[in-house]
Write a structure and sequence with these properties.
The complex is a heterotrimer of chains A (about 475), B (about 120) and C (about 500). Chain B is α+β, with helices and mostly antiparallel strands. Chain B has two helices and nine strands. In chain B, a hairpin with an 8-residue loop joins strand 1 and strand 2. The radius of gyration of chain B is 18 Å and the shape is elongated. Chain C has three domains: about 240 residues, FAD/NAD(P)-binding domain, CATH 3.50.50; about 150 residues, D-Amino Acid Oxidase, Chain A, domain 2; about 80 residues, Arc Repressor Mutant, subunit A, CATH 1.10.10.
């Protein structure tokens, strides 16, 4: 099936695509000429697909998607639940359906892609080294690069949950792949730690397969998942959501036999030992956070932000290295794939405009920023993207008509508060919000016209109001 | 006649709605901070519906076929629907969007494939 | 007789011929840790019929898989002790030994840190003790010399003792390599084979095992924390082994270039200290704690000790990056009540050779112990050396260690080299298949981890576990449902989808 996928791809005639076939002259491969590609998109998940489609539509005909799995679509392939595409396609799709829409777009345009191909290295001057069973090791000199590698889940070890190291403990994403793509059940009596959306979705998925989901524990005073998922994945099936609770011990020598759970102080998150009790279970699924996969970004010298663990970018999704862009969950972890697509479309367009400007010789600076204004995380604000706004003469050809989208999360639950954006001391935007929670990214669209001020030193985003416990 | 508490899923606010039902009609909704809450309460109490997504193990294949209901079905039919899905015969190849079960449980809703499986 | 019984499943446990009379071995080793396998490797050079019994599904499953992996210089042990003698000798043998076995070793040096003026005196005493043990290359460093060598060391460190001969290795890869070479040279390796009652009858040891009776002229006790149970069945010279648990933290590779040397802390009244060390894999290890436990399988980690490690280690390394932890684990050291290794012939049971109480620096001592005890065993049955000896199995060069050119050529020859299964550690499908099919191959998820590092990186198997399961299933021709994390009942999967009855699931009528 995947063979078929690859052979049906038809690169456009003027595309210097790498031939995926294996029947080529081996001698020539031993000293491979460096392939030149205008735009290399690293990652064929929702972000990479959308970025590539937009780049093509913006006029780029020399581009290539690198995907390490044996098919396009990324994590969407294993997300068989509905809830995707409400904003993008105005209908409720499952993950594989959402992915297939974009894969069709890629194929219809004849955008070349390489599956089963892993980007091993990325240099500052945008040389990508890829490896695949079919083409061996290959160097590609890219004009521009879009980072779209997605994210990974935090493992048990990163939390240091004490106890034994038995079988029956895995991340929800691993369990999701095992059940939804490979048809295997990870367990029968299941406890889920973490109430992010994947945890909630897997609680329902396992219930649908006949497993017993005994509890979903959340150390914070609120769920980090969507309310809809709390209701439709837990409440519908009487699965208790235990807020301010965590796992403090793991039992079982070979296979998991039980976990000890305990309440935590909602302010300090210190374990309350008197509340400890054991739940017998054979499986512990962890949904305790997603980490952008930025090993390649780091190699290339891309600066990463502490609060997002993704690249520092401007409003065009440009990193601090000219010609390297980032979008999707490698940049910051999103709630909705629809927003990933929207962001990636912008990255694809911006990268192409940059390429055009560079070809015309309009970009000469070694370091991008002309007049980069930092976007400061004020009171209550975490993980703001972009971290900089390019205010001055943007790179030639960049479209300044669009609004500039800023996304961030709050550090707690705010009801009846407001978001305030200040240009230096001056308030330029104030939006009241019925509720803001860390589980849902707040998105703002800034009007470039209000920011065209050469004297501007900083934008600050802050929350008015007081955080409360859920 | 009864009062029921449900959580509104309209937004992250998650208002706890207190719904009074009289003669199979929603007589009163309290606890909502916006009009969407009242509408949600009505739908959810009188005619709750859910999309159902699941898997079918295909004979001789490791990879299962993922499927969904085309439209939401009455919530109280979820597990009956899952049982129907499990039983459904699958003949390969299947293309995304193919109808796997017609008019499941007389709901006028089809079960369709959400992926290709060759 | 070259029979590897590393079946993944206990269902295959009783395949060994029940109807044939049991073989008479020249030597039987109990325990497949680094000591047992070192002895087996050394013994396989002799013209002898040898067997090794290991209760787990793989070698290296006990103390060997969970320790600091340090090759000690030898300044620590009491002069005149077996520990001191074999440590210094083993340290000298180690580098060549690892090279011959194609396993990693690095002489990264050790530093013992002192945090007070008093400590400087302690360092001088340590240096004197080391010199008495025959350790070369010991130097006292003042603060500026220390900071120059290790700029990230905590400013709280006043001074240090540098041991040039300190090193690091990979204990489980080493042990697997030892077992492989022994098997290639005739060792009968019996995995999932637990030794039970033993008696000596007419000059022959009869060992009841989970796979039938094993008969041998020499019995070598390398049973780790269980060594007392073996010895005390046979000898009136009894001893007691206390399992002493040590917990560790492991940090991601991105922290790897922080320190070059292994940093010890000078023991004080407050305790023996916690080490901070790079590993040969490029990660960083912090630990161990020391806690006597009663259960010989109790390898839990605990909240208290994991915190204790951080608190104590932060004396050496002030800014431990806590978001870079990838895992925590613990291991048991076999502490003998005599506080020294128990090596050699039992005083009252002819043919019983003990290698017991092998706690730190046991790993360092392993090549010396293996050689010495093998000589004793061979002498007992008057065996000579074989004429020919198979060199150690050389696994395929790991993808991550190849040059680009090597990678390209290797992929053209075998496309599986180009299929990266574990992205964090860049482990190829070819390596995983090789790890399964090689001598003493992997049959479990943990077995794959220890042979290839797949699943040992920062995502801890999140992405590669499903792929490794399917490769194991393919190579071993068993159902994924039968595969385990580490043998026994540690199955990873519990069934196929659609198999659990939904009858108990009622349709919901409430909100």
């Amino acid at each position: 099936m995947d063979e078929r996928k690859e052979t049906t791809q038809k690169p456009a005639a003027d595309t210097p695509c790498l031939a995926p076939g294996s029947g080529r002259d081996i001698e020539a491969e031993l000293q491979p000429p460096v392939d030149q590609v205008d735009l290399v998109v690293i990652g064929g998940g929702p972000a990479g697909l959308a970025a590539a489609v937009s780049a093509w539509d913006a006029g780029c005909r020399s581009l290539l998607i690198i995907e390490r799995d044996d098919r396009l679509g990324g994590i969407l392939n294993q997300c068989i639940h509905n809830g995707f595409g409400i904003f993008r396609f105005n209908e409720e799709l499952t993950g594989p359906e959402y992915a297939s829409r974009y894969i069709e777009e890629v194929k219809r345009r004849g955008i070349p892609y390489l599956c089963s191909t892993m980007a091993l290295e990325l240099t500052q001057d945008k040389r990508v080294i890829v490896v695949s069973p079919k083409i061996g090791l290959k160097q590609i000199q890219a004009g521009a690069v879009i980072l779209a590698m997605g994210c990974r889940e935090r493992p048990r070890g990163a939390l240091g949950i004490p106890g034994t190291r038995c079988a029956g403990i895995m991340t929800t994403g691993t369990a999701q792949r095992l059940s939804n793509l490979e048809g295997y059940m990870p367990g029968r009596r299941i406890v889920i730690l973490g109430s992010g959306d994947i945890g909630l979705i897997m609680a329902r998925r396992m219930t649908f397969e006949g497993a017993q989901v005994l509890a979903c524990l959340e150390i914070m005073p609120y769920s980090s998942g969507l309310t809809r998922n709390v209701v439709q994945c837990l409440q519908d099936f009487d699965i208790p959501l235990m807020l301010n609770h965590t796992v403090i011990d793991i039992h079982g020598k070979e296979r998991l036999e039980g976990v000890t759970i305990a309440g935590v102080n909602p302010d300090t998150r210190a374990v309350l030992p008197e509340t400890a009790r054991r739940i017998d279970c054979d499986t512990l699924l962890l949904s305790v956070g997603l980490i952008p996969e930025n090993e390649l970004s780091r190699q290339a010298g891309v600066t990463l932000a502490d609060s997002t663990r993704g690249p520092v970018v401007d409003q065009y999704l440009a990193t601090e290295i000219p010609g390297i862009y980032a979008c999707g969950n490698v940049l910051h972890v999103h709630d909705l794939v629809d927003e990933v697509s929207a962001e990636s479309h912008r990255a694809g367009q911006a990268a192409v405009r940059w390429l055009e400007a560079e070809k015309k010789g309009l970009i000469t600076r070694a370091v991008l920023k002309h007049h980069a204004v930092p976007v400061i995380e004020g009171k209550g604000v975490r993980g703001v993207v972009p971290q900089f706004i390019e205010i001055g003469q943007p790179d030639a050809g960049l479209d300044v008509k669009d609004k500039w989208r800023v996304g961030f999360r709050t550090d707690g639950v705010y009801k009846g508060g407001a978001v305030v954006v200040k240009a230096d001391q001056k308030q330029i935007l104030r939006q009241k919000k019925l509720i803001m929670t860390p589980g849902e990214m707040v998105l703002l669209d800034l009007d470039p016209a209000k920011l065209a001020d050469d004297a501007l030193k900083a934008l600050t985003i802050e929350i008015e109001g007081e955080a409360e416990h859920g | 006649m009864a009062d029921r508490e449900i959580i509104c899923i309209g937004c992250p606010m998650g208002c706890t709605l207190n719904v009074t039902v009289r003669d199979q009609q929603v007589a009163r909704v309290r606890g909502n901070v916006c009009s969407r809450g009242a509408q949600y309460a009505k739908d959810e109490v009188l005619n709750p519906k859910r999309m159902v997504t699941s898997l079918i193990a295909v004979q001789g294949r490791e990879e299962p076929l993922s499927v969904r209901t085309e439209k939401p079905i009455p919530k109280n039919l979820i597990f009956d629907c899952l049982r129907e899905i499990r039983k459904a015969p699958v003949t390969l190849p299947v293309a995304i969007g193919d109808v796997i079960v017609k008019n499941v449980l007389d709901t006028q809703v089809n079960i369709i494939a959400t992926r290709d499986l060759a | 007789m070259n029979q590897i019984t590393n079946e993944p499943l206990d269902r295959q446990a009783d395949k060994t011929g029940q109807d044939k009379p049991p073989l008479l071995y020249d030597a039987c080793i109990i325990g497949g840790g680094v000591i047992g396998c070192s002895i087996a490797q050394a013994l396989s050079r002799y013209d002898m019929r040898i067997v090794l019994l290991e209760k787990n599904t793989d070698v290296s499953e006990g103390t060997t898989k969970a320790n600091s992996a340090i090759i000690h210089a030898g300044y620590d042990a009491k002069p005149g002790s077996e520990k001191a003698r074999t440590n210094v000798r083993g340290n000298r043998m180690f580098e060549a030994w690892c090279r011959e076995l194609h396993v990693p070793f690095k002489r990264n040096t050790s530093l013992v840190l002192a945090f007070s003026e008093d400590g400087i005196k302690g360092l001088a005493e340590l240096k004197k003790r080391g010199e008495a043990n025959g350790v070369e290359g010991l130097h006292l460093l003042d603060r500026s010399q220390l900071q120059q060598r290790e700029p990230h060391v905590s400013p709280a460190a006043h001074a240090a003792l540098l041991a040039e001969s300190g090193g690091i290795c990979c204990p489980y890869q080493l042990t697997i390599a030892l077992a492989s070479q022994a098997v290639q040279n005739g060792l009968d390796l019996k995995l999932s084979c637990r030794a039970g009652r033993i008696r000596r009858h007419q000059g022959v040891f009869e060992i009841e095992t989970s796979k039938g009776v094993v008969r041998s002229k020499v019995l070598i006790n390398a049973a780790g924390v269980y060594a007392d149970e073996i010895n005390n069945q046979l000898s009136t010279y009894t001893f007691k082994i206390t399992p002493r648990r040590g917990e560790y933290w492991l940090l991601d590779k991105s922290a790897s270039d922080v320190f070059k040397a292994t940093l010890f802390q000078l023991p004080t009244a407050m305790g023996k200290g916690i080490l901070v060390s790079p590993t040969v894999d490029g990660t960083l290890i912090l630990g161990p704690t020391a806690e006597d436990v009663t259960d010989k399988e109790d390898v839990r980690t605990t909240q208290e000790k994991l915190v204790e490690i951080l608190d104590t280690a932060s004396m050496s390394w002030a800014e431990i990056p806590r978001h870079q932890f990838i895992t925590a684990f613990s291991g048991l050291r076999a502490h003998a009540d005599s506080n020294d290794f128990i090596l050699g012939f039992s005083p009252d049971v002819p043919g019983l050779i003990n290698a017991a109480g092998i706690e730190s620096p046991g790993l360092t001592s392993a090549p010396a112990i293996g050689q010495e005890l093998a000589e004793m065993a061979a002498g007992f049955v008057q065996a000579g050396k074989k004429n020919s000896y198979q060199p150690a199995y050389q696994p395929a060069v790991p993808f991550r260690e190849m040059s680009h050119q090597q990678r390209h050529q290797a992929i053209l020859k075998n496309p599986q080299v180009g299929r990266i299964v574990c992205r964090c550690e860049q482990v190829s499908e070819a390596e995983i298949r090789d790890a399964i099919s090689r001598p003493v191959g992997a049959a479990t998820l943990d077995g794959i981890k220890r042979r290839t590092r797949a699943g040992m990186g920062r995502c801890q198997g999140g992405f590669c576990t499903p792929k490794v399961i399917s490769l194991l299933s393919d190579e071993l021709q068993v159902s994924p449902l039968a595969l385990t994390k580490a043998g026994g009942r540690s199955q990873i999967l519990t069934g196929r989808i659609g198999q659990i009855d939904l009858d108990h699931k009622e349709n919901t009528h409430h909100g």
